[in-house]
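Subject: Interface between my chains keeps coming out wrong

I've been trying for a while to get a sensible model of this assembly. When I model each chain on its own everything looks fine, but I need the whole thing in one frame so I can look at the contacts. Pasting all components below, labels as-is. Any help appreciated, I'm running out of ideas.
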Amino acid sequence: MTTCDSIVSQLTAYLDGELADDDGSAVRGHLRECAACRQLARDEAALRDALRVLPPVDPPATLWAGVQAQLAAAEVADARTPRWRRAIARWMPRFRAAWLPSMPQLAVAGLLAVAGVSALYWRTHRGDELATTDLPRLPMPEIQTPHREPAAAPAAALTTRSDDVTAELAAEPARVTGSYGEVIDELTRLAEEARGSWSDERKAAFDGRLAALAATVAQAQDGRPRQRAQRSMIRFLQGAVVRDEVVLASGGSR
Amino acid sequence: MEMLYHQYKRRVFGMAHRIVGVSDAEEVAQEVFVRVFRGLAAFRGDSQLSTWVYRLTVNAALSHLARRGRRREVGDDGLVDLPAAPPAERDSALAARIEAALSQLPAGYRAILVLHDVEGLSHEECAAILDCRIGTCKSQLHKARARMRELLGPDIAARVANLA
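Reply #2:
Try treating it as a single job with all components included. I did that and got this:
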């Protein structure tokens, strides 16, 4: 049995002549008997007819001039757009040329990518490189030793290989300081061996300078300041030892 | 190129006018013609030229509404529910009432009503233009007409007859 609800759902198709013969006949039959649905059908038909005869809307006279101006502007923009960007935009219409990055943007993106990869590589491999350059542990000298870092921290850093890269990086300053300390110890020992041939004046000057540098190392803050002071001390000791070797090799004396 | 413009100017501008309103219709129509002329060489001919132009028009108009309305509510069946600008005063009282009701519809309903009932396109053509199934088109048209009946009030036939 045809109900009002089913008529309402079929009304559009019925008025547009899209229903099969038997379905159309059933709708017509219901409309003959149901005044409410008949009124609804009249309203929809009147609406459809009114829409069909809506007067056309004339465009303003300025439309064509506006279109031409926009076309001209688009051509100028084309001329200023690199050919590769136009090609990408042509083959991938969804990516409009304006959205594509410029060469400087691509260069910056490339640099950032290289920096990111480098940082990642450094974080994962730097610990290994440092481990391969560790200096051998050297015996303690017998003479007065300048300040150096406690051996426990660098020793721990030298001997323990943690998989935790972050922990290794955090321990690196102490390890470097410890290594410098060992170099200073060794150079001091060599200098002590050589000082037998030095004059009293030179010994005094050497001891005074070494004590001053040791005091600087001791007072320096942990980390890079102390390492800088240690490097100064190493340069001084190297100079003393090498100068002595050169003098000995040349047969002279000081 | 100018011949093509004159051939489609009323249809394009009329569609734009009824979907986005009179204030933005010229801007949308300009955008459509620029796309038509710049894309003409790439037009593959797998649909009628008129269908392609209508499709560009509907897409440009709906995109314009979406930009203007900053993506408000999405209407039934995913159609954008955005109000058009108030229609211009027209000489005909009947046309004015219809246009006023039309402007209050969700944009998707406006599109299907204009394509099918105003422009007289078939459901197949409407489906191709709106990129949806024919059944969806029919369903949308049914809902759009029902909403128009609500907006125009009861006994439209008599009032339409009187106004006409």
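Reply #3:
Confirming on my end. Chain A has a mean pLDDT of 76.
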